[in-house]
Amino acid sequence: MFSNIRSLIFKLDPETAHNLAIKSLKLNFVPYTTDKNKDDPLFKAELFGNNIENPIGMAAGFDKNAEVYNSLFKLGFGFVEVGTITPLKQFGNPKPRVFRLVEDEALINRLGFNNLGAENIISKIKVNKKIGTLGINIGPNKDTKDRTKDYLKCLNIFNQVADYITINISSPNTENLRMLHNQKQLDDLLKSIEKEKKNINSKIPIVVKISPDISDDEIDKISQVLLSNNVKGVIVSNTSDSTRESLANIQKYQKGGLSGKPIKKKSTILINKFYKLLKGRIKIIGVGGVDSGASAYEKFLAGANYLQLYTGMVYRGPNIVNMIKKELSELLLKEGVKNFNEIVGNETNT
Predict the structure, then answer these.
(1) What is the pLDDT of residues 28-64, one digit of tens each?
(2) 330: which residues sit within 8 A by CB, 6+ positions away?
(3) In angstroms, what CA-CA distances link 324 with 113, 123, 210, 290?
(4) SS3 342
(5) CA 166 – CA 233 distance, rounded (Å)
(6) Which residue in 17, 189, 280, 297 has the fewest CB atoms around it within 10 Å?
């Protein structure tokens, strides 16, 4: 069905198409496909103490205002991450701010943390009881005078409804946000978060979402900070503000974060570098160009414990999780494994 209407959807402005997708999911206009392999032991996993049906999650950025997470669970996602959410409501950057690069199967966005604000969104979540594992991605307001304080505010608001909280330090669309990759700044931030967790008696797992545009030296320093601060997971990675040279679409130099197929290799290499340093002590959620069984397989081999996607659904449609599982199961069965976890970090299979 999606292949029949994709050309019509792609005639719409990307942000308009996205808003239409959210409305369709809210109104149950998107048909939920029956997953015959819902309980397949090949894909069973545990995420921060919660049993999940499969390791394929929806990345933050799709459901910014926590409106359709339950609909996404019904589409087959093993877990869903909403946001990025800031303490106060903000419009984000001026439009146009999302660009579809069809030839490259990519998106560029410079949305800028547009969301309804933490208090509005928490009220939605309390009313709409989650039916699966829910992550909440938080960040600071654009004009805040104290970014750490903004993260702590969101932590306080969401810690009782989330299954984990992601600290977003890596959007390229909030000025100087990526400075938080600096070893001392990141260490200070994570220590403040851990202190606040103790103050409010919270055991919420903390995940950090990092940039794909970091050097090997930064990877090493960030790994040290994560390991010393009780961080449970790292998302590798956010969108890229580089990696444009080989793109075909004329909009390739639009300012913003690039996602989709063109960053697949870059994120996979980065996952493997973190895997070798973290040695299983921190879970890795792999993101970037996940749109098929083969791309998922590569991420697992590189060291990802779980996956997230967003742009892949734009190009392959709402049934993408079932498509990936079908393609991935063929690859896993060829290897003779009983669960995908058996190939995590097993580069020798490539």
Answers:
(1) 876 666 566 678 999 999 999 999 999 999 999 999 9
(2) 293
(3) 29, 34, 25, 9
(4) helix
(5) 9
(6) 280
171 is known as an active-site residue: yes
Lookup result for tokens 């449609």: 317
Residue 34: both structure tokens together: 């029956």
Nearest 5°: phi and psi at 181?
-75, -15
Question: One of 71, 171, 211, 295 is an active-site residue; which one?
Answer: 171
Sequence-ordered strand ranges (E) for the chain: 45-47, 50-52, 56-58, 79-85, 98-101, 106-109, 133-138, 164-168, 206-210, 233-236, 257-260, 283-287, 306-309
Q: What is the pTM of this model?
A: 0.96
The correct CATH number of 2-349 out of 3.20.20.70, 3.40.50.1100, 3.30.70.1280, 1.10.287.1770 is 3.20.20.70
Total number of residues shown for the chain: 350
